[in-house]
Design goal:
The chain is mainly alpha-helical. Helix content is about 70%, strand content about 5%. The chain is elongated.
Length: about 375
């Protein structure tokens, strides 16, 4: 067992000696998690941008929204549209000059609502409509009292007294959209941390395929086989080395995102088991590419390209919840999708090992098949070289 650990340790030291890995393995994953998380506000009350000149209608809208604990900013119509389009505001409200005059003279309430692009924007849109509906009711009540001969000031005072004496109803918005339900309760950095972990574990492991080719080309593997160790130990050490690199990448991202960004991964035991099996799949794929490819340049390009394509298809770049049914079925040809589903259930539904057993079984079968195939091709290639 000791020779296997020594060979695996060499692979880890090789990862450490390459200074370019300090950025691509240690820094870049965290930067991407930060950038992705920055696109999602952790403000549960949401943000609304209101456009329109100074008017009673605009002031009433802003006052009612802020009373409902919504963050409100006032800007020009063009700025409001830009904020909503770029995700800096969840809902936009535009009050035209005609609407402001109609409200001041007749009490009519008109406005333009612009829904946002965030996953939770529909819920905030319902809240904004609820607030605006209350304003519509109040405007109708005010018009009814003034038609009866009351002054507007006396009518407003009477309505305010009546509102204080009545119990304010509560509104509970239940979102029936499955994607929104899957994202509900997630932290600002949870989805980004999950996807980037799957992406970089695979890319880091596959980029190590070029190191295996250099080891074979320089004769290091052949000389190792002449040492007092068995061929099985040598090949197991190579596989374990790539598994160690992938596992290090996974544990590093999980721990740092939890500590620095507060990402919640769920129960540590099931999460670790999913990542270990996924790392084994990545190690087997790296071993296979490092044996089949002819040069380290081809292996490096193939490893990075394949890693990016599989991550894009399997939920490492875009959450699987946003995929259509057909594309989601295709995505499950990749190990990323199975690992993503397992991690999503652990975090979103508090699942344990038994709950994600189908996903774990698929990853285990993939890992066993790829590691066996990679070890066999490496043994065959080495035997031909000797």
């Amino acid at each position: 067992m000791r020779p296997v650990l020594v060979i695996a340790g060499v692979e880890l030291r090789r990862l450490q000696r390459d200074r370019s890995n300090y950025f691509f393995v240690l820094v870049l994953p965290l930067l991407l998690v930060l950038v992705i998380g920055a696109q999602f506000s952790d403000d549960s009350n949401g943000r609304v941008a209101v456009a329109g000149g100074e008017s009673t209608l605009r002031e009433n809208l802003v006052r009612a929204l802020r009373a409902d604990d919504v963050e409100v900013t006032v800007a020009s119509p063009q700025t409001v549209r830009e904020k909503v389009a770029r995700g800096r505001a969840d809902v936009g409200i535009i009050v035209s000059p005609q609407a402001a005059r109609a409200f001041a003279t007749q009490g009519d309430l008109e406005f333009t609502l612009i829904p946002g692009v965030r996953s939770d924007s529909p819920a905030l849109l319902h809240r904004a409509r609820s607030v605006l509906s209350r304003l519509t009711v109040q405007s109708g009540q005010l018009a009814a009292l003034t038609d009866r001969g009351m002054s507007r000031e006396a009518a407003r005072s009477a309505l305010a007294d009546a509102a204080q004496s009545l119990r304010r109803p509560t509104l509970e918005v239940v979102d029936v959209d499955e994607s929104a339900q899957e994202f509900s309760g997630l932290g600002q950095f949870d989805v980004g941390a999950r996807g980037q972990t799957l992406l970089f574990v695979f890319v880091t492991a596959l980029s190590g395929a070029s190191a295996l080719i250099r080891t074979r080309r320089l004769g290091v593997l052949s000389r190792t086989l002449t040492a007092p160790v068995s061929a099985r130990q040598v090949f197991a050490g190579q596989a374990l080395g790539r598994f160690a690199v992938a596992t290090f990448q996974a544990v590093y991202i999980v721990l740092l995102t939890a500590v620095l960004f507060g990402a919640d991964w769920g129960s540590p035991g099931p999460v670790l088991l999913v990542l270990l099996l996924f790392s084994a799949v990545a190690a087997g794929t790296s071993l296979l590419i490092g044996t089949v490819a002819d040069s380290d340049t081809v292996a490096s390009g193939l490893g990075i390209g394949l890693g990016l394509v599989l991550a894009a298809l399997g939920g490492g770049m875009i959450p699987l919840e946003l995929f259509g049914s057909t594309l989601r079925s295709v995505a499950h040809l990749t190990p990323h999708a199975w690992a993503y589903d397992a991690l999503a259930q652990i975090r979103g539904h508090g699942a344990g090992v038994l709950d994600v057993l189908p996903e774990l079984a698929v990853l285990a079968v993939m890992a066993l098949a790829l590691l066996s195939l990679g070890t066999w091709t490496l043994r065959r290639s080495t035997a031909r070289g000797l």
